Amino acid sequence: MITRAQHGIFKPRTILNLHTSTNNSISPLPTNSVNALQDPNWKLTIQDEYDALIENKTWELVLRPSNTNVIRSFWIFMHKRRSDGSFERYKARLVGDGAGQQPCIDCGDTFSPVVKPATIRTVLSIALSKSWCLHQLNVKNTFLHGNLEETHAPRAWYKRFLDYVITLGFSHSVSDNSLFIYKQGEQVAYILLYVDDIILVTSSDELQDSILHHLQVEFSMKDLGSLNYFLRISVIRTPQHIFLSHHKYAEETIEKAGMSSCKSSPTPINSKAKLNITSGNPYHPTQYRSLAGALQYLTLTRPDISYVVQ
Question: Which residues form the signal peptide (predicted)?
Answer without folding.
Answer: none
